[in-house]
Amino acid sequence: MGRPCIFIRLQGCKLRCVWCDTPYALDHRVIEQEMSGGDILAAIEKYPSTRFVEFTGGEPLEQFGVLPLMKQLCDMGYDVAVETGGHVDTTLLDERVTRIIDVKCPDSKMSTLMFWPNLDGLRKHDEVKFVIASRDDYEWAKDIVEQYHLIDRTAAVLFSCAFGLVEYADAAKWILDDGLQVVFQPQVHKVIWDPSRRGV
């Protein structure tokens, strides 16, 4: 959070999380912008001082053509991460890519689609994220963190509030009261800019 980052947002996701804040990126049949790998590299090179690139969506891992581009960026010395909804197998990723697994809590209505072996394959530089939409989600996420020993096995466990559904102060209090060693992660772009603004 707070680190300059180039976001590559891919279109298409078979999940339909109740609180999704990027519904425009879900339907792969409605193409908003088509870019080749070369086009994406050219866009990245417009920001020479930014060496961190994150793939997000939609669901980037539903587009297998992006895997060679991630590898190429790693070869070029970029720090590369992918934020994935957790329903697609991550084992095809280059080992240098940081996996940010977004574990879908029950209030998302998508938790039954989670591909749980993704958590078994986590490495020390990977991260796990939980978007919390209620106190019940928080308690469920806390149980998953403990069950899979995520704090000891990853670089960070992130707890984020579903925008407008849980107050930051409430979530922070739950975490502090429980002494939970997670990273509280507000959506910084929604604090700095208008929450509906795109392209930031």
In brief:
By secondary structure, this protein is of the alpha/beta class. The chain contains seven helices and seven strands; from the N terminus they run E-H-E-H-E-E-H-E-H-H-E-H-E-H.
The fourth-level CATH homologous superfamily is Aldolase class I
Low-confidence stretches: none
Oligomer: single chain
Mean pLDDT: 90
Number of helical elements? 7
What percentage of the residues does DSSP assign to strands (E)?
A: 15-25%
Sketch the major β-sheet: 7 strands, parallel
First and last CA, distance:
14 Å
* Secondary structure tally: strands: 7
**Overall structural domain count:** 1
Please state the CA-atom Rg, rounded to the nearest Å.
Answer: 17 Å
Helix content: 25-40%
Output the CATH topology.
Answer: TIM Barrel
* Outline: globular
Named at the architecture level, the CATH assignment is Alpha-Beta Barrel
Tell me the strand order in the biggest sheet. 1-2-3-4-5-6-7
* Class by SSE composition: alpha/beta
Give the CATH level 1 class: Alpha Beta
Order of helices and strands: EHEHEEHEHHEHEH
Map the helices and strands.
Elements (H helix, E strand, L loop, with lengths): L5 E4 L27 H8 L7 E5 L9 H10 L3 E6 L13 E6 L13 H4 L6 E6 L2 H13 L2 H4 L2 E6 L6 H11 L4 E2 L3 H5 L8
Parallel strand pairs: 1-2, 2-3, 3-4, 4-5, 5-6, 6-7
